[in-house]
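tl;dr need the bound structure. longer version: we got a ligand (guanosine-5'-diphosphate) that a collaborator sent over and nobodys looked at where it sits. i said id run it. heres the input, straight from their email, havent touched it
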Amino acid sequence: MSATAVVGAQWGDEGKGRVIDYLAQNAHMVVRYQGGDNAGHTVVNAFGTFRLHLVPSGIFNPQTINIVGTGCVVNPDTLLEELADLEAAGVSTDNLYLSNRAHVIMPYHRLLDGLREQARGGKAIGTTKRGIGPVYSHKAARVGIRLGELAYPDRVRERLRLALPWVNRELAAYGHPPVEEEDILAKVDIWWEKLGHRVVNTLPLIRDALEQERRVLLEGQLGVMRDLDWGIYPYVTSSNPLAGYTPVGAGFPLRYVEEVIGVVKAYSTAVGGGPFPVELTDEVGDRLREIGGEYGATTGRPRRCGWLDGVALRYSAWLNGYTGLAVTKLDVLDTFDTIHVCVAYRLPDGTITREMPDVPILEQVEPVYEAWPGWNSPTGHIRRWADLPENARRYLSTIEELAGAPIRYVSVGPERDQMIVREAGS
Ligand code: GDP
Ligand code: IMO
Ligand code: MG
C-alpha cells in the first residue's frame, strides 16, 4: 500500500479529523502536509473529545507515526498547549515528529494577522488570526525561520535581523510598538528545549514508510474552496489544501499517491468571509447549524450553512481527482422532509452553468436546486450500507454522480465507530 490523501472537498470542516482518526487505526503513518493551527479537527473516541489544531489526527494510535510536514507552519506555543492537553487525557504523544523544514509561526505573525485583518475593514477575510497569512508570506519572501534553525540561536538572531526591520515597519504603519529581538530569542530557547527532540529530517521516515509499502495517510487542512490558488481568492488560506500539494508538503514523488479520499459533508458550511452561494440565512440554515453543531472548532464562530453545493463538489472532484469519497454528517439530515442540492448556478445574465466561475461572478450567482425526498428516520445507529434508508442511499448516489467517484465511507455521527464502511459491490 502507499499514500492515501484525505482532503476537504468543500469550504473546510468536512470532518477530516474524524475520518483520519478512523482510518489511522490501520495506518503506519499520518502526515499533515500544509496549514497550521488554523485547523480545528474534531476527534471523538475512547480518550474523549479533542479539537486538534496541528497534531495529526492519527495521534491516538500509538503505533502510528504522526508527522507535521514541511509544508506546515508551526506555532510552538500553541503546539505545546495542545500536547499538554493530549497528555492530560492519557494520550501519548511520543509518536509525533516535526519537520525541521517547517516554518515557525512567530508571535509577530499572529500580531500582524490581527492588524492586517483590522486594516481590511469591511473586506476582512475573517481569518482565524493564527498568523497563517503572515508566516506563509514571510516564507515566500524568504525571511521566515524554520524549526530546525531554532537549534542555533545565533543563526536565529541573524535571521531576525533580516525579518524584524520589515515586521517593525509594518507594525509602525499600524501604530503598533516594535517587536524586540531579545524577547523572541528568549522564547526560542524555551521552544527548543521543549520541542527540539521532535524536530527531525522527516524525509527518510516518509521515504522508508512508502518504500516498505506501509499505509501512509496524508491529512489535509481546510478544503478546495479556500485553496490559495483555486479557492475564492482573496478569501482563502495561504497554503494549498489540494491533494496535488501532498508530495510537496510531505516530501515524496508524485507517483506514490494511490488514493485520494474526498471528505464531503452532506450539506455545506463555511466560516469566514467570501462568496458562499448556497448560504441560507433562513430557519433551514439555522436548523442545519443547530442540529449539526456548526460552530468553528478553532474560533467558536457560527458557521454559515446551506445545502450541498454540487458545483463546488464537481469542481473539487476535478481538482483533487477523488478515487473515493467519505460522506460525513448524513445523520444531520435525518429530520428534513426535503433535501435540496445545488446542481448549477444561474449567472447574472440568466445563463445556467455547472462550471465554477471566479470570484467576481461567483459573488453574483444564484444557486439552482434540485429537491430530494428526505428519509425521516434516524441513521446514527446504522453500520451497514444496505441498512441505510432507501432515500438516503438515493441522496448519496447523487453525491457520487456529482463527484464522479464512489462513496467508500459514510459517517453517521461524531464518534469513531459511527462509520459505515461500504463493502465492495454494495
Ligand atoms: P474538520 O476540520 O474537517 O476535521 O471538521 P471539524 O472537526 O471542524 O467539523 C466537523 C464537526 O462535525 C465536528 O464537530 C465533528 O465532531 C462533527 N462530525 C463529524 N462527523 C460527523 C457525523 O457524521 N455526524 C455528526 N453529527 N457530526 C459529525
Ligand atoms: P479545518 O482544517 C474552516 C478559513 C478562515 C478564513 C480563511 C483564511 O478545520 O477545515 P486563515 O486563518 O487560514 O488565514 O483563514 O480560511 N479557515 C477555515 N475554515 N476550517 C478550517 O480549518 C479553516 N482554516 C481557515 O475562516 O475564511
Ligand atoms: Mg475544522
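gonna send this back to them w/ a short note. The first strand starts at residue 3 and ends at 8.
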